[in-house]
Amino acid sequence: MKQVIIIGAGLAGLSAGIYARQSGFDTTIYESHTIPGGASTSWRRKGYYFEGGLHWLTGSSPKSQLHRLWREVGALDDSVAIHNRDPFFSYESDGVRASLYRDIEQLRAHLIALSPADRNEINKLCRDVRKLSKVEMPVLDLPNLKAKNPVRFPLSMLFAMIPAMPRMKYYQNLTTQEYSEKFKSPLIRKLICNMIGDQFNAAGVLFTIATLSAGDGGYPVGGSIAMAQRMAKKFLSLGGVIQYKTKVDQVVVENGVVKGVMIHGEMIAADAVIVTKDTLSAIDDMFAEPIREPWAEQMRMECAPMLNVFIGLGVQADLSDLPANCTFPTQHPIRIGDLSFNSISYNNYTGFEGYAPEDGTALTLAMTGDSYDFWKKCREDGTYEAEKQKLADAVIHELEAKYPQISGKIVVCDVATPLTYERYLGSFKGSWMTVTKKGKTNLRFSCKPESIAYLYFAGQRLMMPGGCPVALSTGRTAVQHLCIDTDTVFQGNL
Ligand SMILES: Cc1cc2nc3c(=O)[nH]c(=O)nc-3n(C[C@H](O)[C@H](O)[C@H](O)COP(=O)(O)OP(=O)(O)OC[C@H]3O[C@@H](n4cnc5c(N)ncnc54)[C@H](O)[C@@H]3O)c2cc1C
After folding, report:
1. Domain carrying residue 102
2. Which of 158, 232, 337, 374 sits most deeply, having the most CB atoms within 10 A of its CB?
3. Which amino acid residue places its CA nearest to atom 41 of ligand 1?
């Protein structure tokens, strides 16, 4: 049996591990952290449970193609309840709330009621959301793969995608800001700009609304860590091995062929290695020489990393009257180095059993933007902890001003910076997705370098914008490459 080593027990590593074991490979995952999940993580502090990863899981709907894969790897099953929060995003200013609903007719009526003058643009939005809701990430097999149960591309999906293509191009060529300016209402403009962040092109906004309106993009109860643990359990039940607290220092390559990995100065031999640590950092730091193939150079040039500061707050108050996911303007700009934030976005976990002590609520906030260099400087000059506290104080001050019922009730505050993510994930600048900018299509990168045999990559960075579905599918694709290279029949697609 061929020995396969996988670097990382995030979702890509677990997915690769499960498919590799199913196809008969002797598989060990080395994970530097003490738990599985990588960026898909959640944690508990003083009774409050903070969801640090998943918000919307594409493939949560049984109607989607990806759903079968999530079930195949044990991430979802009949016992896992899915929260489909609705409205799924709101923007609130001067006492007025604009929201995005999953139901398109409800969305249309709500937005037109807010701004009748925008009727035409709102109708266009709803029409395009309907078109895009037919587009999904296809689940395909590699050409030349020998599979026990080959996947056939459903032609119905192709026909559904054709009318959406020109509209996708249209939105890809607009920033979210430019798209929002087509609406007269300042509130709707803000709603659009803030949903996934104004760094993305407008296709991301439309696709997110389309995915959720198709009944997908739910939140599995228990969140990220529970999902990762189910996948790890599946991998172990198939006979796989996970070595936690074990950082791989380097992949060993001799004469263009993978030989194994180095861990604490010891060489562990393997017939194949699948690297799921962020590809953007792995191509520079996991090999004796950086990988310089054209796809790697393109990744270095074109991948704009998405990173954030994450704040978890434990509030000793019932916040059930607050929206589930909301952005509001701040009274004063909040600064993180060169970045200035004029609004705050939060997720409110009211009603999630076990996420807070009785009468308490877990709130999480993500402040997205590249503040890596600022935190690095703070770490070097000894102001890191003080700056984290200063940021937390500013955020809490704004929250308390907006929601007086929170005043004096914040009992837990947990701040993670890009350096925290970098420490845990080893990812480029601590990033966990890629921003798809104006004019950019969703670039894909190969799982398989040309210059090194039996080396494969998997993970969020291989397909823009990344996220859990990309981690899942690239783990599967890496194993399909391995099957082709070793003339093995792929056993997935159950
Ligand atoms: C705040 C936040 C919100 C998000 N929201 C969503 C969402 O709503 N929907 C969605 O789909 N996605 C979301 N994501 C993104 C998603 O979580 C990630 O894209 C995905 O989990 C990446 O998985 P991965 O396996 O590719 O990489 P990672 O999770 O980075 O896994 C890599 C693993 O490799 C390990 N590792 C690294 N280097 C080494 C080494 N040298 N030796 C051993 N182990 C190593 C790391 O510890 C890690 O466990 C969110 C992420 C964050 C942080």
Report:
1. 86-139+150-214
2. 232
3. 248
295 and 444 fall within a common domain: yes
What pLDDT shows up at residue 494? 66
| C-alpha 433 – ligand 1 centre gap (Å) | 8
CA-proximal residue: ligand 1, atom 17 (nearest):
40
193, 214, 235 - which closes a domain: 214
Same domain? For 315 and 384 the reply is yes
226-278: per-residue pLDDT in tens?
999 999 999 999 999 999 999 999 999 999 999 999 999 999 999 999 999 99
Residue owning the nearest CA to atom 47 of ligand 1: 425
Map residue 411 onto helix, strand or coil.
Answer: strand
Does 60 reside within a domain? yes
Does residue 423's CB lie within 6 angstroms of at least one atom of ligand 1?
Answer: no
Among residues of the chain, what percentage have pLDDT more than 90? 91
For residue 27 and ligand 1, the question of a CB distance below 6 A is answered with: no
Can you tell me the distance from the alpha carbon of 121 to that of 242, in angstroms, rounded to the nearest whole number? 52
In a domain, 408, yes or no: yes
> 245: Cβ–Cβ under 8 A, 6 or more apart, which residues?
31, 32, 33, 34
Q: What pLDDT, on the 0 to 100 scale, is given for residue 1?
A: 59
Same domain, 299 and 443: yes
91 plus 210 within the same structural domain: yes
Nearest ligand 1 atom to alpha carbon 248:
42
Q: Per-residue confidence at 159, pLDDT binned at 50, 70, 90?
A: confident
**In this structure, is residue 277 part of a structural domain?**
yes
> Could you write out the DSSP letters of every residue in 337-378?
TTEEEEEEEEEE-TT-TTSSSTT-EEEEEEEES--HHHHHHH
